[in-house]
Design brief:
It is built from twelve helices and no strands. The protein is an all-alpha fold. The protein folds into two domains: 1-101; 128-232, Serine Threonine Protein Phosphatase 5, Tetratricopeptide repeat. It is elongated and about 65 Å long. The N and C termini lie far apart (60 Å). It holds the Pfam family Phage_term_smal.
Amino acid sequence: MSLVKKALAKSKGGVPKSAMDAQAPSKVKRSNEKQTEYAFFKAAISSDLAQLKTFTDIADKADYKSAALERNDYMGYINQYRMSGGNHPNIVLSWVFIWLVDLKRWTQAIELLPLLIEQQQPLPTRFNTKHWPTFLIDQLYDEVNWHLQNNKSDGYKDMAFCLYQVIHLLRRQDWAGQEIAGGKLYAIACKLEVARDNTGNAVCFGEQAQKINRDAGVKTLVAKLQKKLQRQ
């Protein structure tokens, strides 16, 4: 049992303040329990964030985040939050998503993206963007680009899977005001597919990148790929 859940269980074991509290309707009781649970996890994540400020080394921060996710079972809380239909500004959800991205746990992060968008969860104020897809795309772009620049072909398949997941989730996204992010998503997918020798997919992604943002940086590449397809 996580440290947070131990503290929560201890608090639930207290004596009711009054006979009325003891006889409270089940819905009210469940609502109060949810609020209490959130308060505990919010306090835990706030404590972890304060502790992170004491580290200067990125690797140390990553180790701490990974350990905190396990120690406090934040993912267990978030899964319960989702299943219960919870919907309120949730700083725990927001920071866990950010940590998952920082730790390159792409599949877990991508799984939470629709919930953040649907509930319009606010990004912490320290970040420049207020748009969750943009936040994720920026980080994922850098990761895929690193693989391409360093010829890490053994990771191409996993990176392609992540990009395909994000593209599928955002297939109906209105990119108005976020054209740069949308263009980056499809542009890096185009470049990755070139590296994987999937010319047809590369052209499709490249054309979509230009459709969203004409300055996506793949105009020349797409033209070459189109000519290549014509010769085949």
